[in-house]
Known about the structure:
Layout: H1 3-69, H2 71-94, H3 99-128, H4 132-135, H5 149-179, H6 192-217, H7 220-227, H8 246-264, H9 268-286, H10 298-306, H11 316-321, H12 331-334, H13 345-348
Helix pairs in contact: 1-6, 3-5, 3-9, 5-8, 6-8
Amino acid sequence: MNGPMREQHGVTQLAKLQKRDRETERERERERETLQRTLLSGGLWDSLKKAAFVIGSGLFFLVAFRNSVTWHLQRFWGASGDFWQTQWTRLYTAFDGNEASLFFIGTMLVPTFFFWLFNGFLMIVDTTGKPAFITRYRIQQDKNNPVEVERVWRAVKVVLCNQLFLSVPLVILTYTVMSWRGELCAPQLPTFHWVLLELAVCGLLEEVLFYYSHRLFHHPFFYKRIHKVHHEWTAPIGVVSLYAHPVEHVFSNMLPALIGPVLLGSHMATTSLWFTVALIVTSISHCGYHLPLLPSPEFHDFHHLKFNQCYGVLGVLDRLHGTDDKFRKTKEYERHTLLLSLTPLSKSIPDTPKKHE
């Protein structure tokens, strides 16, 4: 093959390679577009349908079997139900049926009191490292030994500001909205079964709203402007549960908890119980200690440690969306259970020894 022919052959081969590259690039572009359409129109919608199915099924079975499931609890409740009704009647009479005052005391002051009582004890443990009986259950053992007092105090000031300037107005607004539904402080307390059902619904609604609002705040645009404040604590402590930017406190801390009582038109007593439980549970999730007989905080502690895992409360939507896939491969996942002994899970389920090169 002479020189001109070799040159022409080379040009032809180059043209074929360029054409093949263009076709490959177009194919990749089509795949990207198909993937985007799947995620936007199919994947997310499919996940939402699955979540609705799971939550709806849970509610159906709860309603269907609540009598048999709660029969023994109802027997225990028995006489104490009369006790609480008597105390409520006395309180209602003392306030002369003043709904606004009763609602504010029950839904703001009572939950806040228990929040600070619980976290006040934890802050003493965090800053002093005593008693050792508590600190031996620390999850991230290499951190917060002890926590700097100045750092805790900064968190406390932010939390107090959020409660005073945001939580109080929102509770007042909630009362205004809920009062349209009817009598919030009725003389008769709701039944035990109904309270359980409302607490279950409130918990499921919180899971949905918190998960999606939390994931939204992890978007780079919102994270660096808003959510980064909360993630200053990679090893959280209890009071940090409400340590957040004001926007996050409203949309991710308050609204997911408020939506249930508002939609259900709950009695003040139920709303007070729900707010108190929600605050204590989120404090436990952030406390940094996996204590016996308390809900496991491993799930949310892992979120603070690794940032892009475990966005929810119950973990239902994390499983549906696959945002707990890395967590489920860890020792923390093995420890994510109710501790029924006095032996710390870090001892009974120790970390895998690191390999030395």
